[in-house]
Design brief:
By secondary structure, this protein is α+β, with helices and mostly antiparallel strands. The protein contains four helices and 15 strands. It has a single domain, classed as Alpha-Beta Complex (Creatine Amidinohydrolase), CATH 3.90.230. It has a five-stranded antiparallel β-sheet with strand order 8-7-9-14-15. Strands 1, 2, 4 and 5 form a four-stranded antiparallel β-sheet that branches. It has a three-stranded antiparallel β-sheet with strand order 3-12-11, with no helix packed on it. Helix 1 packs across helix 2 and helix 3 packs antiparallel against helix 4. The mean pLDDT is 98. Bound molecules: 2-amino-4-trifluoromethylsulfanyl-butyric acid (MF3) and cobalt (II) ion (CO). 2-amino-4-trifluoromethylsulfanyl-butyric acid binds next to strand 4 and strand 5.
């Protein structure tokens, strides 16, 4: 299952590099007063410029080009002409692109204006939990080792890790086996072989991990209405660690 050749890894890396570039360039234009539709339009412009396509549009019927999730929205927010970014919001941008048949998938959460200390801490802890998850990867490690690394870090700050969505294998398809949960026990789960490509994507809630889906059928929100943050990178498992494929370097 899912071990990639070096040629395939190079293609995912090329897709991942463009994906992260588009993500960062899109994040750079976030401003209070913009609609999430305008943000997605800018991302679309960048995709066209780079000659790549959205990996999300039409996936299981998803109607947007990217996902934009604000404050208590956890993931899968659909860009909308009536949704306006305000100062003090935290905004999660999740972008997947397909280039040359292979996918790159990455996400970040940004602050718009002054979001206050607690929301900023949520962003920082989520970002650092992804780094810690990535640092725990090596050929032969188990998905539970990654989940435990993320969960135990996040819970030290009194935040909770989302249970209902997980990271995943990446390749020609957006979601391939294995599932990579952001919680778990060391030594448990699926053992990752060298050259497997996975996306690790902690979703961290300020309050409880319970979720709800909005009537649009996509937008995932926290049940308690408290904010949530999300960071994601696509990586390839290596003998003594891993390499981040969604990197602009
Ligand atoms: N990056 C997210 C994921 O990997 C979003 C994809 S869902 C989609 O699950 F439907 F929007 F494509
Ligand atoms: Co993903």
């Amino acid at each position: 299952m899912g071990i990639k050749t070096l040629e395939e890894i190079e293609k995912i890396k090329a897709a991942g590099k463009i994906c992260k570039k588009i993500l960062l360039e899109t994040a750079a234009i976030l401003k209070a007063g913009m609609t999430t539709f305008e943000i997605a339009e800018f991302a679309e412009f960048l995709m066209e410029k780079e000659g790549v396509k959205s990996a999300f549009y039409g996936y299981r019927g998803y109607p947007g080009l990217i996902c934009i999730s604000i404050n208590e929205e956890v993931v899968h927010g659909i860009p909308s002409k009536t949704k306006i970014i305000r100062s003090g919001d935290i905004v999660s941008l999740d972008i997947g692109i397909i280039k040359d048949g292979y996918i790159g998938d990455c996400a970040i959460t940004c602050s718009v204006g002054n979001v206050g200390a607690e929301k900023q801490r949520l962003i920082n802890v989520t970002r650092d939990s992804l780094k810690i998850g990535i640092s725990s990867v090596y050929a032969g490690c188990k998905t539970g080792d990654i989940g435990w690394a993320i969960q135990s870090y996040v819970e030290k700050f009194g935040f909770s890790v989302v249970r209902d969505f997980a990271g995943h294998g990446v390749g020609r398809n957006l979601h391939e086996p294995p599932e990579v949960p952001n919680f778990g026990y060391p030594g448990k789960g699926y053992q990752l072989p060298e050259n497997m490509v996975i996306a690790i994507e902690p979703m961290v809630n300020m309050g409880s991990f319970d979720l709800r889906i909005l009537p649009d059928g996509w937008t995932v929100v926290t049940a308690d209405g408290l904010p949530s943050a999300h960071f994601e990178d696509t990586i390839v498992v290596k003998k003594n660690g891993c390499e981040i494929l969604t990197s602009t370097e």
